[in-house]
Write a structure and sequence with these properties.
The complex is a heterodimer of chains A (290) and B (189). With 290 residues, chain A is mainly α. Chain A is 51% helix and 3% strand. Chain A has 2 domains: 53 residues, no CATH class; 199 residues, no CATH class. Chain A is built from 12 helices and 2 strands, in the order H-H-H-H-H-H-H-H-E-E-H-H-H-H. The longest helix of chain A is centred in the first third of the chain and has 26 residues. Chain A is globular and about 65 Å long. The two termini of chain A are 30 Å apart. Chain B has 189 residues and is an all-alpha fold. Chain B has a domain of 100 residues: RNA polymerase sigma factor, region 2, helix turn helix motif (Rna Polymerase Sigma Factor, Chain: A), CATH 1.10.1740. Chain B contains 9 helices and no strands. The chains are: A mainly alpha (290), B mainly alpha (189). The interface between A and B is large, with 67 and 75 residues.
């Protein structure tokens, strides 16, 4: 029997995984994909093919890579030469990034207000789920430290959350800020490439780039990693836009304990593995959660 | 724009602090090197550049990045910027050395490397065969499709690939969809 709605293209399936699809089209994907075995199977096949090639690419080329130490030392020496041999600390450069223009001033004002608001909202410190720390000791924090990263938001309403706009959140967080985050978490010796300095409250839900909203989140060294949190962020935003969840609750839940929030909103103890699984979970939520 | 203005004026009015500014940028560049070195080097090797030349290219990329950042130029989409410079340098180097055959060498090395890691002979044979097919299929793709695929394998987002290769977002997704479909057909054989 033919489908009532046209199938998704491979391009749309790919862009969906990167959150690069328009909000309107994303709505269509969410309704179509779980009901279309053909598109679901095609998406699984695309993901499996990509994973297979990426694994080959990495395994084989990794065997060719010389240790980084020599080239790193060489780069530092050449930079030192370009620098004229100065050994002075660059406070100006760091602060010029941190103190860059009206956006910073705006963000600081918003952060102070919202950090206070979140503190009042959260009230007393909460006891975190011990499961969330079971594997965290060797691989960095699964949850941010509330004292360092309470979350920070800017004034935003639901219409702004649900209106597609330029992807401000794509901008790179300045290296100086990233370093400060690692330093505050006592992770100066960690490999930066293993972590995403992530927003606790995603910019799509009104989170800011302020350091109180940033923490070092593992990419893949734990089950609960940055990619999994991305799923929750997308899901909460969609629930807000569908009128199933109010924005302050979404901000509070993700800031308080994103893993607990993931379990609660997806009705699972384990991270789901693909977009189609996410949509499957969304469609099968109990009515009380809708 | 406002941010750039503030940044430039801060730097411009404190001439004496310029060495210190460079030192701070240098530290940032080394941090970025730690994040991107392996990814960039793998990418340029996949373009058929030898390891030694690849390491020189990586050095040049991060020295260029230092100059770029010291001049206060835009920092948005730095991953795209880094891969764009690496890509252009690698193509130039490859052309200069006429090392088009290096990719074939890489394919052979890739299979040999993996061969040594697989114990069971039957499993080894099947696995090597599958890898050969995948690598051959990638080699048969149009060059731009290969670039997109390799950049995606290095974790770049579509937007970053678009920036690096000067393509539109739609062209990147078209390219990857086409490539993955072809690889899927090869794997299904």
């Amino acid at each position: 029997m033919p489908h009532k709605t046209p199938h998704l293209t491979d391009e749309e399936l790919l862009l969906t995984t990167d959150r690069e699809i328009s909000a309107r089209r994303a709505d269509y994907v969410r309704t179509h994909l779980p009901n279309c075995p053909e598109c679901s199977a095609r998406m699984e096949r695309i993901n499996a093919t990509a994973a297979q090639f990426f694994a080959i690419h990495h395994e084989e080329l990794n065997a060719e890579l010389p240790p980084a130490a020599t080239s790193r030392a060489r780069l530092k020496a050449e930079l030192e030469a370009l620098d004229g041999g100065s050994g002075l600390r660059s406070w100006l450069d760091r602060t010029s990034h941190l103190l860059a223009g009206p956006r910073w001033a705006y963000a600081l004002g918003a952060v102070l207000i919202v950090a206070l608001g979140l503190w009042l909202l959260f009230g007393e410190p909460r006891v975190r789920d011990s499961r969330d720390f079971a594997t965290a000791s060797d691989s960095g924090p699964l949850l941010p430290e509330p004292r360092l990263t309470p979350g920070a938001t800017r004034p935003i309403d639901v219409r702004q959350v649900c209106t597609p706009g330029p992807p401000d959140q794509m901008a790179t967080i300045p290296v100086a800020v990233r370093q400060q985050v690692f330093h505050e978490y006592g992770m100066d010796q960690s490999q930066p490439r293993e972590y995403e300095v992530d927003h606790l409250i995603t910019p799509e839900l009104g989170g800011t780039d302020d350091i109180h909203n940033l923490w070092p989140e593992p990419y893949s060294s734990t089950e609960w990693n940055a990619y999994v949190k991305d799923q929750l962020e997308d899901h909460l935003r969609q629930m807000v836009c569908d009128g199933k969840l109010d924005l302050p609750t979404a901000q509070r839940d993700i800031a308080t304990n994103w893993i607990s929030a993931y379990r609660r909103y997806f009705h699972t103890d384990k991270p789901l593995t693909s977009v189609s699984s996410l949509i499957w979970a969304e469609d099968r939520k109990p009515a009380a959660m809708r | 724009m406002a941010e750039s203005t503030v940044r430039v004026s801060l730097i411009g009015t404190v001439e004496a602090a310029l060495p210190a500014v460079s030192q701070g940028v240098a530290e940032e560049v080394v941090t970025l090197f730690d994040q991107f070195r392996d990814r960039v080097l793998r990418y340029v090797l996949s373009l058929g550049v030898g390891v030694s030349d690849g390491e020189d290219i990586v050095q040049e990329v991060f020295l260029s990045l230092f100059r770029h950042m010291r001049l206060g130029k835009p920092r948005d989409n730095l991953p795209g910027w880094i891969f764009r410079v690496a890509h252009n340098l690698a193509l130039k180097q490859r052309s200069r050395r006429q090392r088009q055959d290096a990719r074939t060498e890489w394919d052979a090395r890739a299979v040999e490397n993996h061969l040594a890691q697989v114990a069971n002979p039957e499993e080894q044979l099947a696995d090597v065969q599958r890898r050969k097919q995948v690598l051959a299929a990638v080699r048969a793709l149009p060059e731009q499709d290969q670039w997109c695929l390799h950049m995606r394998a290095e974790g770049l987002r579509y937007r970053e690939i678009a920036e690096a290769l000067g393509m539109s977002l739609g062209a990147v997704s078209n390219s990857l969809a086409r490539s993955l479909e072809r690889l899927a057909r090869v794997s299904a054989r």
